[in-house]
UniProtKB/TrEMBL annotation:
Gene3D superfamilies on file: 3.30.70.2860, CinA-like, MoaB/Mog-like domain
Coiled coil: none
Domain MoaB/Mog span(s) in chain numbering: 4-170
InterPro entries: CinA, CinA-like_C, CinA_C, CinA_KH, Competence-induced_CinA, MoaB/Mog-like_dom_sf, MoaB/Mog_dom
Name of this chain's protein: Putative competence-damage inducible protein
Sequence intervals crossing the membrane: none
Family, similarity comment: Belongs to the CinA family.
């Protein structure tokens, strides 16, 4: 089935925000067996939006829209779509009740304009919004399918996964089942090289690799008559990939590295503390993203200056003088110092040059050391990272967390 993604919003045309929704939907539609022919962006203008529907449906069978489902007058996607399909809308009481309950939970009054979001024709499929007030919907008319999703990614993604895909499956002669494997510590090219035989011989299931910030994702998708049959088809292929990539497969499904590490720390009852220089608290903040981490995370220190490294962590002045703040030796003393002073099983440290300036020939921008104290043993790793200051800091945190994960597993 041919598909087109239609993003609605003047802010996209002005470049105020990036259209990450289209990227996500293209990946997922490809997994589901739909051919995406075009991405279109149109502003908040009724005439242009209607024209966009006409042109897109002349080319494809399926349109997925994002944006324009809000309560304001310039949120026109639903209204123009219903007009295009010649459908009249009425208040959908169940949806209105959910919107009212959402505002009550937020302890905020619901304004009259929000009722607009509860209007739908009686013969459409309403797609629930579990994270906002704007429901989506699905329409099928004369062989043409339209799915309307909200613009904010935190609302759009779960709506599509939980309600949009089941709606689409009604128009397929098979059930599509997917499983995600998340890989860390192996580069994109290396990961694909390690399983190239599996990829080259894929039929059903298929494997779709994606490179994301600091990690690789392999989505395995099977076509079958039932979900159960699909998972049975996926199982041997998943086993092959896990055997090839080994410990690099850190999780499956929609999760994050910090959640995996946090769960391991709590499960193993391993206490941890952190000492940061170049990451400036980002490592501590990332660990604290995991609910329940307070059971094991004891303390974090941002020791940006040499003086603070000496006073807070006990790094020796001789080490700093001889090797410098950005060194393997300093990273190790930082990790050991924060662990001993906090009385934790694990001490993790970061020190480096995130840039954009401050580097030298001997110690260039992107040179980073991560120190690890683990139940009495101290070691360090050296990394040479590239990118902006922000990217170097984020990558350092990911490398540190991945090292902790591997050490716990070992």
């Amino acid at each position: 089935m041919k598909a087109e993604i239609l993003a609605v919003g003047t802010e996209l045309l002005l470049g105020n925000i990036a259209n990450t929704n289209a990227q996500f939907l293209s990946e997922r539609l490809a997994d589901l067996g739909f051919d995406v022919y075009r991405h279109t962006v149109v502003g908040d203008n009724g005439e242009r939006l209607k024209k966009a529907f006409e042109e897109a449906f002349s080319r494809v069978d399926l349109i997925i829209t994002t944006g324009g489902l809000g309560p304001t007058k310039d949120d026109l996607t639903k209204e123009i779509a219903f007009e295009f399909f010649n459908k009249k809308s009425v208040v959908h009481k169940e949806t209105l009740d959910k919107i009212e309950a959402y505002f009550k939970k937020m302890n905020r009054p619901m304004v009259e304009s929000n009722k607009k979001q509860a209007y739908f024709p009686e013969d459409v499929t309403i797609l629930c919004n579990d994270f906002g007030t704007a429901p989506g919907c699905g329409i099928e008319e004369n062989g043409k399918i339209l799915i309307m999703l909200p613009g904010p990614p935190k609302e759009m993604k779960p709506m599509f996964e939980n309600y949009g895909i089941p709606f689409l499956e009604k128009f397929s002669d098979c059930v599509l089942t997917s499983k995600i494997l998340r890989v860390m510590g192996v580069g994109e090219s290396k990961a694909e090289e390690m399983i190239h035989d599996i990829i080259d011989n894929q039929t059903n299931p298929t494997i779709a690799p994606y490179a994301k910030e600091g990690e690789m994702i392999f989505r395995i998708t099977a076509k079958a008559d039932t979900k159960e049959e699909g998972y049975k088809l996926i199982e041997p292929l998943e086993t092959e990939i896990r055997n090839s990539l080994g410990i690099a497969v850190y999780a499956e499904g929609e999760t994050t590295l910090e959640n995996v590490v946090g769960e391991l720390l709590v499960k193993k009852n391993l206490t941890i503390s952190s000492a940061e220089s170049c990451t400036g608290g980002l490592l501590a903040g990332t660990l604290i993203n995991y609910p329940g981490i307070s059971a094991v995370y004891k303390e974090g220190a941002i020791t940006y200056t040499n003086e603070s490294k000496v006073e807070r962590l006990g790094v020796s002045e001789e080490t700093l003088k001889e090797h410098g703040a950005v060194s393997r030796e300093t990273a190790e003393e930082m990790a050991k110092g924060v662990a001993l002073r906090s009385n934790t099983n694990i001490g993790i440290s970061t020190t480096g040059i995130a840039g954009p300036g401050g580097g030298t020939k001997e110690k260039p921008v992107g040179l980073v050391y991560v120190g690890l104290y683990f139940n009495g043993e101290v070691k360090s790793k050296e990394f040479h990272l590239v990118g902006s200051r922000e990217k170097i800091r984020i990558t350092t945190v990911l490398r540190a967390l991945e090292w902790i994960r591997r050490e716990i597993i070992k």
